[in-house]
Amino acid sequence: MQHNFSLKPYNTFGIDVKAKYFASFSTIQELKACLLNNPHDALLVLGGGSNMLFTEDYNGLVLRNEIKGIALVQQDDHHVYVKAGAGEVWHEFVQFCIGNNWAGLENLSLIPGSVGASPMQNIGAYGVEIKDVFHELSAYHIESGEIHKFNKEQCEFGYRESVFKHALKNQYIITDVTFALAKNPVLQTSYGAIQQELDVKGIVQPTIKDISDAVIAIRQSKLPDPKILGNAGSFFKNPVIDLTTFEKIKAQHPNVAHYIISETEVKLAAGWLIENAGLKGYRQGSCGVHEKQALVLVNYGGSQGQQIFDLSTHIIQTIESQFGVKLEREVNIIPTHESIL
Ligand code: FAD
Ligand code: EPU
């Protein structure tokens, strides 16, 4: 157990805050021991720190999950069931599966963070979400000390959502996740840029490795590398609005980037709204809106979490006044603000 421990290397925004107490665990026994010795009520589980914004020092215990291990646990005619420790690095796990020709995760290449955090917000990219390949997870119930299993239905996955962000918030620590991966790949190339990337390379019959390489190339072309420029990916969710509101916005902004998701709902591209509000590349002190992807807020160096939070409030207010749409933060704000705008 470390005291007054700097979290700067443990969050991809590179915010220099301290945890009052900090420890790592690589087995469930170690996790139990950490919790038994927890000198404080407040508890935060940390994976790669790639979806967090610390606005002040953490007055409690931060536990870093380092449970490792990958195992093929079961198979049938069509699927392999692959279990990974929550502390495995997500992208390394994806590459391991691709190397074994286990299909389904290739579109999720290069997402930072850990396997254990992937179900928290049902990570998604380029037409795939983990709910599409998820089988089950095990999680440590903090109050009882028991391990509980959750199937897909019990996780209540939605767009950047799961039960662990709502009804079961702060109650469980995910220890492993099992994925049902296909023996015969069903490639998902519907996201425009993937097909373009394959065409440019002249690939007509892509493998899952080709899809992964295409996704990596697209991501590298627009998303900042946190090792170079602090960020946590998309700072806001793409807002889902009703059709009537959408028609009103479209009447004024015929080019608004959107996806029809049902007969009554439309998802707007928040990046488009931010760019068209004139905020792409906008800078406020040592933080700002990324020049290539307006949905990403960046730390140019030395920014405090509160400054980035204030910038996000400015963006929410600007978008609401210009388009009548309220953006919701996607990044976890730590500590949770009682009255998040
Ligand atoms: P952390 O940031 O450490 O934690 C996130 C949340 O999960 C916190 O609430 C934490 O307490 C909780 N948590 C973490 N581990 C556990 C556990 N084992 N048990 C219980 N709770 C836990 N996300 C996408 O969905 N799609 C993208 O395309 C995408 N692109 C990104 C690109 C960049 C450049 C960056 C920096 C981020 C991107 N993200 C994306 C966001 C981020 O990578 C994901 O949310 C990722 O799953 C976070 O993993 P982590 O281990 O870093 O989680
Ligand atoms: N757009 C703009 N200006 C911008 C950014 C985007 O006009 O500055 C427009 C694009 O032209 C495009 C649309 O918005 O028409 C969508 O852009 P993009 O394909 O870059 O994806 P996104 O909607 O901005 C989402 C996810 C990403 C994920 C990508 C790819 C959310 C909140 N974000 O971004 O996830 O990687 O799609 O699937 O859903 C993350 O969660 O951290 C993340 C990076």
Task: Report on the architecture of this protein.
The chain is an alpha+beta fold. It folds into three domains: 64 residues, Uridine Diphospho-n-acetylenolpyruvylglucosamine Reductase, domain 2; 113 residues, Uridine Diphospho-n-acetylenolpyruvylglucosamine Reductase, domain 3, CATH 3.30.465.10; 105 residues, UDP-N-acetylenolpyruvoylglucosamine reductase, C-terminal domain (Uridine Diphospho-n-acetylenolpyruvylglucosamine Reductase, domain 1). Helix content is 25%, strand content 28%. The chain has eight helices and 20 strands. The strands form six sheets. The protein has a five-stranded antiparallel sheet. Helix 4 crosses helix 5. The longest helix has 19 residues. The chain is globular and about 60 Å long. It starts with a strand and ends in a 7-residue tail after the last strand. Bound molecules: flavin-adenine dinucleotide and uridine-diphosphate-2(N-acetylglucosaminyl) butyric acid. The site of uridine-diphosphate-2(N-acetylglucosaminyl) butyric acid has 16 residues, from strand 13 and helix 7.
